[in-house]
Amino acid sequence: MAEIPLYVLVEGPDDERFFDRVIAPLFAARGYETKVWKYACEKRLRTMNLIRAVRKAGIPYVFVRDIDRTPYAARRVRETLDSFGHAMEAEMVVIVIAEIESWYLAGVRDEEVAVLGLPPVPDRTEGITKEIFNALIPRGVSRIEFMQVVLDGFDVGLAKLRNRSFRYFMDWFVEGGRVP
To answer: Are 130 and 69 in contact (CB under 8 A)?
Structure first.
């Protein structure tokens, strides 16, 4: 069976690493070949043209963006639509709460916490920002190495319990019917 292309538009390399390691295999099991596009590394017009072309061809896509300091996910979706000329459908925008690093930590099991020398991971990771995540990285370990080790033992089920935006993404896009 030929794989169906699925475009996942993410902010940058940390998001790409997460989606390549955790999400792409889950979509592959459903027959999709995930193609990651880092929109923060491209001109806005180029990203808008990609989205329009993908939609016109009937190719599924998902646009992923951190909530950052925006107080409400719905407002961040509107900001995203406005920023990209309404090239995409609102229901195809996923807002990560708070930042992609919160998804990384959401899937860290207690056994991994001990191996990594981390303090206990909170029951909810929506408050984890890039700065909090960076403060957890042990001395002498690069950020990329740390992220890769975290993803080595990533537990999707645990992540769904710890982060509601990850659970929403999994329920609606990976396991649900939002992506046909």
So the answer is: no
**What is the separation of C-alpha 176 from the centre of its chain, rounded to a whole number of angstroms?**
16
Render pLDDT for 38-65 as a digit per residue (tens, 0 to 9): 999 999 999 999 999 999 999 999 999 9
In whole angstroms, give the CA distance from residue 106 to residue 102.
Answer: 6
**Sequence-separated (6 or more) residues with CB below 8 Å from residue 56:** none
C-alpha distances out from residue 34 to 5, 114, 141, Å:
6, 33, 29
Question: Both tokens of residue 13?
Answer: 């390399």
- Which domains does the chain show, CATH number per domain? 4-100+160-174 (3.40.50), 102-156 (no CATH)
Say what the pTM is: 0.95
